[in-house]
Amino acid sequence: MPHVVVLGAGFAGLNATDQLAKEGFRVTLLDRHPYNTFQPLLYQVATGGLNAGDITYSLRYFSARRHVRFRCATVVGIDHDARQVLCDDGVNIGYDYLIVANGITTNHFGIPGAAEYTMSMYTRAEALKVRDTIFGGIETIAGMSDPHTGGFTIVVAGGGATGVEMAGQLAELRSNAIPKVYPELNPALVHVVLVEMGEHLLAPFDDKLRKYTLRELVKRGVDVRLRTAISQVHADKVDFRDGSSMPVDLVIWAAGVSGNSALREWGLPLGRGGRIEVNSDLRTTNDDRIFAAGDASIIVDNPLPQLAQPAIQMGRHAAKQILNLHREQPTEPFSYHNKGTMATIGRADAVLQTPNGLKITGLVAWLGWIALHILFLLGNRNRIQTLINLAVRYVGLGRSGVIVGDVAETPKLRAIRRT
To answer: Per the domain annotation, does 368 fall within a domain?
Structure first.
């Protein structure tokens, strides 16, 4: 059987690997981490609701169960003529077919200071850094002999699903945890600001759900600022295009994603947002033995949203097309089956919409969100542990409890404490 190399162990990569293994292909899965990360729940790690281990899964265990070879390495290039993947440890891995599914990175849109002074949540390490900074900041102002009049201000940039979920959870953290865990601290000193340059939150959703989301966030005490664009980020403040500024302690960047710029050096055709351009069958436009799937790719004639479901379906489709080529059959165009989309706002509150026009809000949508996310986690241990921790956070007597780590101060608060 041909040897297929899969780059990246996200939704697309794992589903492609699983499908190829079932068909008997020799498969090598490459990722720079020895674990898969369930990205939709990273914001729960960042706000102390889940342990990082709850949403990560061993890639070696995943691979061994499917008789797939796993290699933990960073890819530095592709030799198209020799059909080899070049790794940072000097090892070159030959392939008959290649699937590139290495995901995305943060897009700062060229805004000065954004890359240097903001934090993202697209990896396990980034989520833990955000968590330690949030609780480090709260710990710092709680320990001051005189209350810090400026408080602790967190700006969430971007009004998509990630930004809405993060802002909503931060608001609940302030309302539930601070009064019980930090009795000496006035919760009003913690400010949560959600900034969106567009006219709406959750742009892909129906207008009714957008307005509902806005009302619910405001009800929770989130300072939502629509039609507000960031022009520059500093260590201790954010500048807006209208000329105003805001002192900040932490900026969480959820405003956009892009493909990895290194992909161009790999000889892959990049299109909008730095994503790999592919034809309708998911083969790249310049190499008929290389496929690209998931967030890293863009179908030239039919761009799709960078969500879990398109990535899952694209990974499986790419694997099926390799089987067709092996059997000397024609490839088939990819057809996305939209199963709907959802976003959680906070405890017992979420929005959900389906392609047939069904729109659900509140508790029912929230329970559906929990069930779906637990279902798609890898491993029964992770599912059970996640269910327990979410139950403690949202239902149990420990609703005020959080999972904490090291204390990380922001530059602004560190300077204040020293004075």
So the answer is: yes
Contact predicate 106/116, CB 8 Å: no
The long-range contacts involving 56-62, CB below 8 angstroms and separated by at least 24 positions, are: 56/124, 56/382, 57/377, 57/378, 57/379, 57/382, 58/34, 59/9, 59/29, 59/31, 59/33, 59/34, 59/35, 60/34, 62/9, 62/14, 62/17, 62/36, 62/378
pLDDT in tens, 202-240: 988 999 999 999 999 999 999 999 999 999 999 999 999
- Is 153 within a domain? yes
Q: 349: domain range?
A: 114-256+340-418
Residues 282 and 381 grouped into a single domain: no
CA distance 250 to 238: 10
Statement to judge: residues 137 and 210 lie in one domain = yes
Instruction: Tell me: do 244 and 170 sit in the same domain.
Output: yes
Query: For strand 283-284 and strand 287-292, is the pairing parallel, antiparallel, or unpaired?
Result: antiparallel
Summarize pLDDT for 331-381 with one digit per residue, the tens.
Answer: 999 999 988 899 999 999 999 999 888 999 999 999 999 999 999 999 999
pLDDT value at 400 more than 70: no
> Is there a single domain that holds both residue 21 and residue 97?
yes
Is 346 in contact with 168 (CB distance < 8 Å)? Answer: yes
pTM for this prediction: 0.91
Residue 171 to residue 164: CA distance in whole angstroms: 11
Cα distances (angstroms) measured from residue 337 to each of 203, 290, 313, 340, 392? 20, 23, 8, 9, 35
Output phi, psi for 142, to 5 deg.
-70, -30
DSSP conformational letter for 410: -
Domains identified in the chain, total number: 2
